[in-house]
Design brief:
The chain is α+β, with helices and mostly antiparallel strands and 444 residues long. The chain contains 12 helices and 11 strands.
Length: 444
């Protein structure tokens, strides 16, 4: 079973705290051991002198001195001679074998002898001679290891244990704080995976997790927008396909029962026109999809932009002559480096829209000029114009100002034109007023 991030964080912190405490314990023990031994040795010598003074000057009984030091960190023992010290089994753990023999053999008359015990104790012990009314005697003073070291070790262990307990509690709280937003992210991710994009995580953090939550909320918002666009796109495509298909179906039924050749030919023309409309719609959808997914290679070459626009004017001559539209053309000679085929589609869509929305006997102006390193193309008609609330939507897929959607076209022309201009690093602007017409400016 995989451990959650909460458990992992707790285990990591506990491990770190434990290792830190062990290191601190042993570092303290080994770094302070030498200083402790020196202090104990100094106190041992000092205590030996005090006991010697008491015994020689005040004749205090040996048993009283031993009882006096019974509860301290030092022990004292009296002996009649050095041989008794050597024979004391209780001292064997302090000294190496035969360590006292040189003293016994020399029958040392020194008043005080300081010896160092063997490892691992390495503590100082004093052998002191005193002169009493009963003659010369010896006593030794040595530290009580159990009392001296146990107190220090117990103190360190208590401090470390307390630090460990506090550290674990604080780690649990810290891990809970850290993992709470992660759990919220996990729950929100599951909701998005299930198709619910209406997700927003409350965020008060300013750290990396807070940034992650902010980015997640942005992603969820973008997904909501994409979902809405997808739904609108499906609805629009369905509608655009349904209208001509319904028309084709109806005229096909009429054609089946029609016996008049002239009516039959009329029905056939309608079916052909609706079929062309479907074909154009499919082509536009595919082209827009390729443009949005950047599946079209932007192969650039130099060509005469003004000549390209003139060819388009001649191509759709039948459309503007049928509506008796007056053209005002002012095209400077411009050589441009771009994708000729894609830009051809831009001018064709813009000019076709201008003709479509111009009244009979109207006027269309076309101009092309260079301004520094930029090229500006303007096309203006005196048609019905566009309402201010609709201007920002004209470049949306399938959007039509005529909400009844009975007007010619499928609402993809300006979307395609805008995408192609954007691919060339340019921009397309629109200026329109209801009842006065529309002007579109393309800057490359």
């Amino acid at each position: 079973m995989r451990k959650s991030i909460y458990v992992k964080l707790v285990l990591i912190f506990v491990f770190i705290i434990s290792i830190s405490n062990f290191i601190a314990f042993f570092s303290f023990y080994f770094t302070t051991a030498k200083k402790l031994r020196e202090d104990i040795g100094t106190e041992t010598v000092k205590l030996s002198k005090q006991i010697k003074d008491i015994c020689e000057s005040k004749n205090v009984p040996e048993s009283s001195i031993e009882a006096l030091l019974n509860d301290s960190y030092y022990n004292v023992k009296f002996y009649d001679n050095l041989s008794q010290i050597e024979a004391d089994a209780a001292l064997a753990r302090f000294f190496d074998e035969n360590a006292l023999k040189p003293l016994v053999q020399s029958n040392s008359e020194s008043n005080e002898i300081k010896l160092n015990t063997r490892a691992p104790f390495e503590l100082s012990i004093t052998v002191t001679r005193i002169n009493t009314s009963e003659g010369s005697k010896y006593f030794i003073v040595y530290p009580d290891l159990a009392k001296s070291l146990f107190g220090v070790r117990f103190l360190i262990m208590r401090v470390n244990s307390l630090a460990l307990i506090i550290g674990v509690i604080m780690t649990l709280l810290a891990a809970m704080i850290v993992t709470k937003p992660v759990k919220a992210l996990k729950a929100a991710t599951h909701r998005i995976a299930g198709g619910d994009f209406n997700v927003n995580i409350q965020n008060k953090r300013k750290d990396e997790i807070g940034q992650l939550i902010d980015d997640f909320n942005i992603m969820a918002k973008e997904l909501r927008g994409i979902e809405m666009l997808r739904n609108d796109f499906v609805t629009a495509v369905s509608h655009e396909f349904k209208t001509p298909l319904t028309s084709i179906e109806g005229y096909t039924k009429l054609l089946k029962d029609c016996k008049d050749d002239s009516e039959r030919n009329e029905y056939i023309e309608v079916i052909i026109e609706e079929t062309r409309r479907l074909s154009k719609l499919s082509s536009n959808i595919l082209q827009l999809n390729r443009l949005e997914n950047e599946n079209i290679s932007l192969h650039k070459e130099s060509f005469r932009l003004d000549e390209q626009i003139r060819r388009i004017v001649l191509l759709v001559e039948i459309k503007w002559t049928e509506k008796n539209i007056e053209l005002d053309i002012d095209l400077d000679e411009v050589v441009f480096n771009g994708n000729e085929q894609l830009l051809y589609q831009v001018w064709l869509n813009l000019f076709d829209n201008a003709i479509k929305f111009s009244p009979t006997g109207g006027k269309i102006s076309l101009s092309l000029e260079k301004e520094g390193s930029a090229v500006k193309f303007r096309i203006k008609d005196n048609g019905m114009g566009i309402a201010p609330e609709q201007k920002n939507r004209v470049f949306e897929k399938f959007y039509k100002g005529d909400r009844s959607r009975n007007s010619d076209g499928n609402g993809l022309g300006l979307s395609i034109a805008s995408k192609i201009v954007d691919m060339h690093g340019g921009e397309i602007k629109i200026d329109s007023e209801v009842g006065k017409g529309t002007e579109i400016c393309v800057v490359l």
